[in-house]
Input
Amino acid sequence: MRYGSSPGQSGSAGAGGRSRGVVAALALAGCGALLASGCAPEGAPGTGPGGSPPSTAAAGSGSPGPSGSPSASPEAAGPPAKGTVTVTGEAAKGLESPWGVALLPGGDLLVASRDKGTISRVATGSGTVTQIGKVPGVAPGGEGGLLGLALSPTFASDRLVYVYFTTESDNRIARLRYDEQRPPGQQLGAPDTVFRGIPKGLIHNGGRIAFGPDKMLYAGTGETGDTGLAQDKKSLGGKILRMTPDGDPVHGNPEADSVVYSYGHRNVQGLTWDKDKRLWAAEFGQNTWDELNLIEPGTNYGWPEAEGKAGKPGFRDPVAVWKTDEASPSGIAWAEGSVWMAGLKGKRLWRIPLAGTDLVAEPEPFLEGEYGRLRTVVPLGGDRMLLVTSETDGRGSPEAGDDRILTLTVR
Output
């Protein structure tokens, strides 16, 4: 076990109901053993959705980072400028405060309930939801609770489920053995804490965890509202962490004996890798700009000194930004040449088409207002994805059937 030294700005859902799309028959069955992840509002003056605010950077100042303007990369032509999203069905409904999701071999799902501290299994062929167990020590409150889920890279043999959760004293990561032979509700073993000491708060707890292509465990953390933690490299708050499955620093991390991989973050809840194994992260802004960042080890992403594309020396600018009422991003996934980003306050799914590290075109919104707040995106391989709503998290306006896991076909 490695010792260390909330989901952030998302706004309220607002009053009134929302429109619903007509949901077709379930189309998730047969996803096999894959183990992967309308109408746009006006942007700020002089920008489109995901575009760049005016930059004050002098030529050659700071770390140039990826371009924020739509352009063709010499690396690849990238996907088409315009995409499509089709809701093909529901994998589950009637979920309470769903947050993390993990795809099991065979196609069923594990889903974490932030506020209940439980993990349930969703049978994707029937939509049946069965609680498999409760994670001891979860202390829900504000934006904390049972957050991210990830399966061990060797899950087929070790049956280990990793969880990121809030306790009375910290945020931590533990692993629990999943034994399907035991009775429902008793199928999780005792938690083995692999990492502890991540700062906790009523807000900005981060919480997304994922195993990367290198089979190392990555975690997005928040600065808990204490903005100074993001620039303090000795703090675990406002960071992206990289560790072994046992919670130890990885050889090749920016600093020896440290799990800190990047810093200067406000509240990271989205992690994904593209086809070329580059790491991307979604981050909540404060009052002005939410961000999609290309993550490189040891890099400073600016918070609280910079928000959005500030062009300040020493800080890496995001690849794309959004006004906070258009996004409040949580989960992200890579599919069909684009990053797909779930918006909480924005109540829409964003498509960010990329050629290498450059935007092919301005980000494009889908499903705006149709399903309410959107929390998590899970890739199923090819053009299929899952999208998890977040109407029962205390900031939504839940309707009959909420919360849901939708099945999508995307282009």
Q: What stands out?
A: The chain is about 0% helix and 35% strand. Residues 25 and 89 are 5 Å apart (CA to CA).
